[in-house]
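Consider the following assembly input.
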Amino acid sequence: MLGRLSNSTSEIIETTEKEMFVKILVPVKRVIDYNVKVRVKADGTGVDLANVKMSMNPFDEIAVEEAVRLREAGSATEVIAVSCGLAACQETLRTAMAIGADRGILVESDADLQPLAVAKLLKALCDREQPQLVICGKQAIDDDANQTAQMLAALTGWSQATFASKVVIADGKANVTREIDGGLETLQVALPAVISADLRLNEPRYATLPNIMKAKKKPLDTVTPADLGVDVAPRLATVKVSEPSGRSAGIKVADVAELVNKLRNEAKVI
Amino acid sequence: MTILVIAEHDNLSLKAATLNTVAAAVKIGGEIDVLVAGTDCGAAASEAAQLQGVARVKVADAAHYAAQTAENLGALIVANAAGYSHILAPATTCGKNLLPRVAALLDVAQISEITGVESADTFVRPIYAGNALATVRSADPVKVITVRTTAFDPVATGGSAAIENISATADCGLSQLQSRELTKSERPELGAAKVIVSGGRGLGSGDNFHQLLEPLADKLGAALGASRAAVDAGFVPNDYQVGQTGKIVAPQLYIAVGISGAIQHLAGMKDSKVIVAINKDPDAPIFQVADYGLVADLFETVPQLVEAVG
């Protein structure tokens, strides 16, 4: 009994010390802006991204905000934003730094980076940076894959808490409330861990002009997949991209009586 | 080819999504095994054995599968993955949490939310909130896939597959379930409902949402859904949300009340057979997908509708 007691005491001291240096890595993706109407290219090779407004994936903005709030609350010491992709992703990193990330890392590549490749790049950066927490957006609004956080957790062997709507860090652990199909559940995960942010985790702040200016002076390193020793060759080939069969507007009914009549006798659904 | 389908269940019974996922496996073709991992999950395993098209049900029963964590289920699936050409799970929060972990451990891609099967290695999936459909071909030795349940009709029952126990993997001990607050409801599940009554910001408050929409849902035997705006405003819990990042539904009848129809919401319901929209704004985008639109004040219309369908 005594032995167990002293064991747990030393554990507490260890985790409290660790907690002082919680470093958070936040991957951010540059995607087509949330409000842009997507058009499929006529040749069926993809969607038209020429002269289209690009922004940070909205879920990643929530992830950055959460990491910055944890630092502001004293639960973390440093927030590092990472983006994988074209040189233009530097803008996305500057946005993350304007929200409050301390520095940025661009993994520059013009390859088609699929979730497994991105997870491998992030794993290599985790080996370098040794964060105790990675907070990802739960899915990117372009490929709607919803994979990277879970894959990174697998590759690092860390615990995962996806679709988070609340995160509390204490005693070297994270208590994460998750949005699941039937409602909510709370998981306690050991750090290091990977968390993915759902919509209701927080409402990201607007970056103020002084913070946007400050972000321009924050450090931004660039590395390549080759520097990290990661093979990013795509595993899935896109055969074609097509327009979904459209749904056209039906009719307007004048009142409830006409609506019920149509539902009963025309659509036959009630 | 042998396909492993990961069953979703609550130990006592299978979730309907499992039936749609087996249907996708049937479409791919080959022998189908179903994995039921849980705690005292014998009843769910027997249900799985009755699904048409299933050859074997593999059961892993252990206390540490109760919480269905991705860490423990992932380790179990990877330990039993040898010999399978495909591993499928429904694209529910459970399947989406689990399968990418499995894919990464197997060093293969994961294909999310397929809505069509072109061949054993080529699949169709929506991207950009369903505004485009991508046909993708996988060169990986194992295809790890989540299935959009609304795209595949459930398989029938009446089969009699063999049930086989497999050994549990060790508890990873990485995460612990602290609590679960599940919404209790007598209504059908959103994913499986034939009729859905869904409310938006136009309802104005949680009280209005319940007072106006519940009687209508009761009359129609419908599930209740909501737009993101209604959930964000706190009218109803998160599990009501229909849309790109919420639940994807395709009922026979979807009645959208006070929902403007953002593309993210349309992504979650536009495959419904019949869509009714009630909104006082004649320019609301929801009318562009509605079969029957009624431009009217919902506070007057909904009670009238309850009367009229009764």
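Residues 206-220 of chain B form the longest helix (15 residues). Ask yourself how this observation constrains the way the partners meet.
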